[in-house]
Design the sequence.
């Protein structure tokens, strides 16, 4: 039974990892695997089904309440209904994956992730310096829609100094996000000796150099806070994570206003349309949504609000790429490229509190401790993810959550050898304090 559950778990994560654009396979495939898992373990998942039902009711109620406070041109329609379905699908995938994670062997999973991380780096090196680039592009084209094939090699050379790898994903940032999430799991579940900590850092530095994705910086930033929380230094850990979240949300906007003081690569990076649409436009869109409905946000009309808010700014400031011809056909979802600010704009104050409460109930149900730390870390990482209705965006929460399971086996395992900078994670049922 454990092996079957891990096959289900691996299948869901693989579909999310591939991040298949345009075809909907990631959604449909991961949902189908989730439903098959429900069928296999239906005798133990009654409470989880009830929680999913509560989430569906929450999404519907929030859509009604937010719709009542919005202007008539932003009322519920076909596009908003589609986003609600995506949201429910993603929650089902998250809940199922976390429940499946309880049935696996944490030590075996940690070893597997070590080999996966090394394998991803090896393929990335061969893609950048070896013969795999063309082969990887050809293979990826088999399951990626033509409009989503990564074609920015020349820009990468100019901006990052080299071609960036993708390792089967749709783009380098996706590779960076998935590698980073697995790396966080590896650190949280691993040993704390000086040699081990040095190994973790070398692995991350190698990934930063080879993948060259700024998304990896977020994962490096949240690890100290997660380790402090795990070591029962909650005040420091939560304070650190809250401070990091504030920095990642607000500092890019401040740096953008000061970009004239920078030169070289940094000035070029902050002057691109990509930086504007990922870090500046989301702040403006969230502000516009909150001004319309501070307590419930704009709901899934947020995407139309984002388009109306940033269309002319993109055309005016970055018309060389985002000209009127391009913007007129650009899907409304592409105006939303920062999941953290998107969450603020979609749910508002009360909606955000309700969503967080449901997540905390899910964590308690599946046996995950330190749920607020998982949520705070995920919020930090969402600043480099696009779209809370994308299945891929939820993978950091899934993988970090997997690292914080309360142990189910009472047997005490052997003491890990070596000195540690932070207290090693104790084993047994009291290893991590519960709620």
Sequence:
């Amino acid at each position: 039974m454990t092996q079957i559950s891990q096959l289900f778990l691996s299948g869901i994560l693989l579909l999310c990892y591939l991040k298949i654009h345009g075809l909907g396979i990631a959604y449909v495939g991961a949902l189908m695997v989730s439903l098959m898992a429900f069928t296999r373990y239906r005798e133990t998942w009654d409470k989880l089904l009830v929680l999913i039902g509560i989430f569906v009711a929450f999404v519907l109620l929030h859509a009604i309440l937010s719709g009542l406070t919005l202007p008539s041109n932003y009322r519920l329609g076909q596009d908003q209904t589609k986003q609600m379905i995506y949201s429910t699908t993603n929650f089902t995938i998250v809940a199922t994956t976390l429940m499946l994670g309880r049935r696996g062997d944490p030590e075996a999973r940690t070893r597997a992730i070590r080999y996966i991380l090394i394998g991803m780096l090896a393929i990335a090196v061969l893609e950048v310096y070896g013969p795999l680039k063309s082969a990887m592009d050809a293979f990826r084209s088999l399951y990626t829609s033509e409009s989503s094939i990564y074609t920015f090699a020349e820009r990468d050379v100019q901006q990052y100094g080299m071609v960036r790898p993708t390792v089967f994903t749709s783009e380098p940032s996706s590779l960076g996000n998935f590698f980073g999430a697995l790396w966080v799991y590896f650190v949280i579940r691993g040993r704390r000796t000086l040699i081990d900590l040095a190994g973790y850092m070398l692995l991350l530095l190698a990934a930063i150099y080879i993948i060259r994705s700024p998304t990896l910086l977020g994962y490096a930033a949240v690890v100290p806070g997660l380790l402090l929380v795990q070591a029962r230094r909650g005040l420091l850990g939560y304070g650190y994570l809250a401070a990091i979240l504030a920095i990642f949300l607000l500092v890019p906007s401040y740096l953008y206003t000061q970009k004239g003081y920078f030169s070289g690569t940094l000035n070029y990076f902050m002057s691109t349309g990509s930086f504007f649409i990922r870090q500046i436009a989301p702040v403006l869109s969230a502000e516009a949504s909150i001004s319309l409905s501070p307590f419930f946000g704009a709901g899934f009309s947020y995407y139309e609000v984002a388009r109306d808010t940033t269309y002319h700014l993109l055309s005016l400031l970055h018309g060389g790429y985002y000209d009127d011809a391009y913007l007129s056909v650009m899907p409304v979802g592409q105006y939303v490229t920062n999941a953290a600010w998107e969450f603020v704009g979609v749910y508002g104050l009360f909606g955000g509190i309700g969503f967080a409460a449901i997540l905390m109930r899910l964590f308690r149900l599946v046996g995950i401790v330190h749920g607020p730390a998982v949520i705070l870390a995920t919020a930090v990482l969402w600043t480099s993810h696009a779209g809370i209705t994308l299945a891929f965006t939820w993978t950091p929460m899934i993988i970090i959550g997997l690292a914080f399971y309360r142990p189910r086996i009472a047997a005490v395992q052997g003491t890990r050898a070596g000195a540690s900078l932070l207290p090693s994670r104790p084993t047994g049922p009291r290893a991590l304090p519960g709620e």
Q: What stands out?
A: The radius of gyration is 21 Å. DSSP finds 18 helices and no strands in the chain.
